[in-house]
Amino acid sequence: MSNNDKLWPLKGGIHPAQMKDVSNGTPIKQLSQPKEIILPLNHSNGAMATPCVNVGDQVKKGQLIATFNIPVATRIHASLSGTITAIEPRAIAHVSGLQAQSIVITTDQSGQIEILPKIDDWKSVSHDLLIRRIEEAGIAGLGGAGFPTQIKYRPHTQINTLIVNGVECEPYITSDDVLMREHSEQIVEGTLIALKILSAKDAIIAIEDNKPEAIGAIKAALNKLDTYNIRLRVIPTKYPSGGEKQLIYILTGQEVSSGNIPASLGILVQNVGTLYALRQAVVDGEPLTQRVMTLTGSAVNNPGNYWVPIGTPIQHIMNESTRDLIPHKIVMGGPMMGFDVPDANAPISKITNCIIIPTKQELPTFSDSNPCIRCGKCEQVCPVNLLPQKLYWNAKYHEWEQAELNSLFDCIECGACSWICPSEISLVQYYRYAKSEIKKEHLDKVKSDQARHRFEDRQRRLEKLAAEKESKRKARAAAAAKIQSNKDNTTESVLDDQAKADILASLARVKAKKPKLTTKVLDTKVVDTKALELAWQKTEDVVLKAKAKLLIAQQENSASVPALTTALGKLEERAKKAKLTWQDAVKFDATTIDDIEQ
Amino acid sequence: MIIIIAILVLLSLAGVFGALLGFSAIRFKPEGDPVVAQIDSLLPQTQCGQCGHPGCKPYATAIANGEAINKCPPGGMATVEAIANLLDVDVVPLDAETDENPIPLVAIIREDECIGCTKCIQACPVDAILGAAKLMHTVIESECTGCDLCLEPCPVDCIDMVEIPTTIHTWSWSPPENHKLKANLIVTDGESL
C-alpha cells in the first residue's frame, strides 16, 4: 500500500496564478444555437477528409458528413441539424489565420438527431466492436493533441495501466474540472469500458489537489463500483503535471524515452473528456458532436463552462457572454500553451478546451524583451530536463543541427521557461520557430532528393535511349557493310574476273573467227588459240575459287549461299562455253593449218 | 654502429608504413568523388541550369574543380552559406539579379491553350510533365522543381510560374526577432556570434 501511495515529484515546473475560480463557480451551461457550424476538413497530419454530403443536403445532428481515407484520422459528424450551405475555404482556429476547406452548415430548429445503435451491455461485446464504435463516433483525444482515439486502442504492446488524466494543470482552464464534478459516473464507466477494450490490469485517475469538488465526485462514483482496479491519485498542483510524460513520471516513476510513446511502458493516458465521450458513444450511441469548453478572461462578463457544438464560431460564443465585444486578443487553449486566434469567425474544434478573452493588463501582447542574463532559471524549471538557454542561442543563430542535438524536439512547449525568464524572452516562440524551420528543411531535403532521383533516372533513360539508338545504327551499318563486302568478295569479284575472262574470250573468238574469213595470218591465229586457252583456264580458276567460297559459306551457314550457288552455276556455264570456244578454235586451227599445209 | 641501426630501423619502419599506406590507398579507395556528392546534396536539385551547367550534379563537380559557389539562384544565400561552410571558403554574395531568398515556384499549364506539342515534356529535367503528342499536357505539381525550363520551348506560351500557396500544413512560425535589444550587455547579445 505504501508503495502504491508513492509519488515521484515532477522535476522543474512552475506555480503560475491559477485563475481557475474565474470560470468554475457555475455548472456547465448550454450554449444557444449558433446560426452556422463550420467543420474544417483538414487533419493535423496534412490529410484532407472527403465530404459525403453535398451543398443543399439536409443533415441531422450526429450524421456522418466527411471521412478520411487514411486510418490515422477521425470522422467528422454534423454537430447540429441543418442544411449544408457551402463547402468552401473558411478561417480555422490556427495561429496563421489561414483558411481551410470546410463544410458549412446553416442550422435549423428541427432538432433531428441521428445516433448509432446503443451498446447497453458493453461488457459482453467484443473488443473489435467497441474499437469500431470509437472510430464511428469520431472520437479524438480531447486533452489537446486530438489524436484519433481508435489508434490508441490498437497498441502494438500489451497495456497494463490506464492513466486517466484529470490533472488540468494549466491556469484558467476548468472544463475537465466541471465535467468531473457533474459527470463523474460517466467518466468512471468510460474508464471501465477502456479497461475492457485494453484488457488492462488497472487504471489510475489522477487529479491535482486544487480540485476538491472533482476529487469528491470521482471518489463517490468509485465507491459505487464493486471493482477495485481503479484508483484515484491526488497529485500536488504544479504546472505542467498534466503533460502525458510528466504525469506518467509522477505516478509511476518511469520515464518515456525520447521519441517513444507511453505504450512502450505498457501505459495508455486518456483525458477525462475523452473517456466521457467514449462512454457516450458506446452506451448512448452519440457521436462526438459537442464538448465542454471554458470561456474565461477578464474581458467577458459571465465566464463559465459551456456545452459547445464542435464547429461553433468563436464569435458566437463571445456574443453569448458579452455583446459587441472587440477583444484585445483571443487565446485558444490556456495562457501557457495556447495560441492567439487572429480571426473570431474561426470555429472551435474537438481539442478546444478553453477560450480566453483577456484584457490588455491581463495578458499583455509580447513586448520588447531584454537580453539573456544567463541566470539559468529556465534550466531549473524545464520539466523535460532540457537546456532552454542553449536551445535559445541555437534557435537565435539558426544552428539547427546543434538544436537537434540538444533535443529540441523533446521540448513540450509548456512555456515554463518563458514564464520564469526575468528578461521576458519568449523562449517558446524561438523553439517553435526552430522546430518549424527544421521540419521545413527536412521536407526540402526529401523533395530535393526526390528531384535528384528523378533527374538521375531521366539521365539514365536518355543515355539508354541514345545507346540503343547508337547500337541500332551501328548494327545497321555493320549489316550494310557485310552485304557490301559479301558482294565484293563473292559474286562481284567473281563476276568481275569472269567479265574480264569473257572479254578476253570474246576478243579471242572475234580474232579466231577472223582467220575463217582471212586465213592469211597464221601467227595471229596460233596466238588466238593460246589466248582462248588462257581465257578458259582463267574461267576455270574463277570457278574453283567460287566453289571454295561456296563451301566456306555453306559451312558457316551464311545468308549468301543461294546467291553464291547461282553465281557458281553461271560461272560453270561460262567456263564450259570458254572451253568449247577454245576447242572449236583449236579444231578450226588444225583444219585451217591442214588446209594451208595441204 | 648505433647510427646505422637507427637508420635501418627508421628505414624499415618507413618501408612498412609506406607499404601499408600504399595498400590502403588502393584497397580502400572511395568510389566516386565524395566532395562532389556532398556539394550535390546541398544544392536544391531544381536542375534549372541557371548556373550554366546541365543540372545540379555537373555544377557540384564544377565547384569541386574550383568554380564559384554563388551561381545557384534557386538555392539562394542559404545554399551559398552551406557550401562555403562545407568547403571552408568565404561566403560570397549571390551572383544573380533575383532575391537572395527565392520564393518557391511551380509551373502550371493553362490546359485549354495547350496544343500538345510535347516540347515542354522534353525540356523538363525531372519528368514532371505528363502528356502525349496532340493531347493536353499537365504538370505533376508535387514533382515540379520550379526551374522554368519548360517556359521557353512552349510555342503557345501556355505555361505560368506561380507561387506555391502557403497552406495550414506548409505554414511555419516566423522568427521572433521583432524585439529590439536595448543594450548589448555581453558580446553574444550582438547580431553575430
Beta content of chain A? 5-15%
Q: Structural class of the helices, strands and pairings of chain A?
A: alpha/beta
Q: State the name of the first-level CATH class of the domain at 103-169 in chain B.
A: Alpha Beta
Reported CATH architecture of the domain at 103-169 in chain B = 2-Layer Sandwich
Uncertain stretches of chain B:
179-183
Q: Give me the Rg of chain B, rounded.
A: 26 Å
- Annotation field: number of helices of chain B: 5
CATH topology of the domain at 118-286 in chain A: Rossmann fold
Shape of chain A: elongated
- CATH topology of the domain at 103-169 in chain B: the name is Alpha-Beta Plaits
Please summarize what this structure is.
The complex is a heterodimer of chains A (598) and B (193). Helix content of chain A is 45%, strand content 13%.
Describe this protein with a few key phrases.
heterodimer; A: 598 residues; alpha/beta; Rossmann fold; Topoisomerase I, Chain A, domain 4; six-stranded mixed beta sheet; four-stranded antiparallel beta sheet; 45% helix; B: 193 residues; mainly alpha; 3-methyladenine DNA Glycosylase II, Chain A, domain 3; Alpha-Beta Plaits; two-stranded antiparallel sheet; two-stranded antiparallel ribbon; 7% strand; elongated
Describe this entry's structure for a reader:
- The complex is a heterodimer of chains A (about 600) and B (about 190).
- Chain A is an alpha/beta fold and about 600 residues long.
- Among the domains of chain A are: about 120-285, NADH-ubiquinone oxidoreductase 51kDa subunit (Rossmann fold, 3-Layer(aba) Sandwich); about 485-595, Topoisomerase I, Chain A, domain 4, CATH 1.10.132.
- Chain A contains 16 helices and 17 strands.
- Chain A has helices at about 1-5, 125-135, 150, 175-180, 185-200, 210-225, 245-250, 270-285, 315-320, 375-380, 390-395, 400-405, 415-420, 425-515, 520-555, 560-595; strands at about 30, 35-40, 50, 60, 65, 75, 80-90, 100-105, 160-165, 200-210, 230-235, 265-270, 290-295, 305-310, 330, 340, 355.
- Chain A has a six-stranded mixed sheet with strand order 1-14-13-17-15-16, with helices on both faces. In chain A, strands 2-8-7-4 form a four-stranded antiparallel sheet, with no helix packed on it. A four-stranded parallel sheet of chain A has the order 11-10-9-12, sandwiched between helices.
- In chain A, strand 13 (about 290-295) and strand 14 (about 305-310) form a beta hairpin.
- Among the domains of chain B are: about 35-85, Orthogonal Bundle (3-methyladenine DNA Glycosylase II, Chain A, domain 3), CATH 1.10.15.40; about 105-170, Alpha-Beta Plaits (2-Layer Sandwich), CATH 3.30.70.
- Chain B has five helices and four strands.
- Chain B has helices at about 1-25, 35-40, 55-65, 75-85, 120-125; strands at about 105-110, 130, 140, 160-165.
- In chain B, the strands form two sheets. Chain B has a two-stranded antiparallel sheet with strand order 1-4.
- In chain B, a hairpin with a 7-residue loop joins strand 2 (about 130) and strand 3 (about 140).
- The radius of gyration of chain B is 26 Å and the shape is elongated.
- Mean pLDDT of chain B is about 85; it is low at about 180-185.
- The chains are: A alpha/beta (about 600), B mainly alpha (about 190).
